[in-house]
Automatic annotation (TrEMBL):
SUPFAM superfamilies: lambda repressor-like DNA-binding domains
Biological source species: Haloechinothrix salitolerans
Protein name according to UniProt: Helix-turn-helix domain-containing protein
InterPro entries linked: Lambda_DNA-bd_dom_sf (IPR010982)
Gene3D superfamilies per UniProt: lambda repressor-like DNA-binding domains
Length: 131
């Protein structure tokens, strides 16, 4: 099932309006960066977010920690006092860890790519200088 980020944005907008908050207040209470709150709230950038980000926003808005994840996946959000199976938390935690590692690897590969390009430019310039 595809992720519905527009539904997440609408749920957040509605709840923020109900609470009389602004995006800054949600960012402050959730400890999520204002830029990310703005992107999700306004549905301006659609990309996978950490389950912890959705959890932090859900809790700050007074919802169950898995509320926004359920909205994202087109499911009925759990009640505030409903328990979350440990295995579900473990899976999300492991996926977050894998995602962080992939981001770190991607950044390292980008650095290597830039370094190789720089070396190739220098070698090419030296060869042209000798010709």
């Amino acid at each position: 099932m595809p992720e519905d980020w527009a539904a997440v944005a609408e749920a957040i907008r509605t709840r923020v309006r109900e609470l009389g908050w602004e995006q800054r207040e949600l960012a402050r209470r959730s400890h999520v960066s204002p830029a990310i709150v703005r992107e999700i709230h306004g549905h301006t950038v659609e990309r996978r977010r950490s389950s912890r980000t959705l959890e932090a926003l859900s809790v700050a808005l007074g919802w169950h920690p898995r509320h926004l994840d359920a909205v994202l996946r087109g499911r009925t959000p759990p009640q505030v006092d409903e328990s979350v199976p440990d295995d579900a938390v473990t899976v999300w935690s492991r996926l977050d860890s894998i995602e962080r590692r992939l981001v770190a690897l991607t950044e390292k590969l980008d650095d290597i790519d830039r370094n190789v390009a720089t070396v190739a430019e220098h070698v090419s310039a030296k060869r042209r200088g000798r010709s």
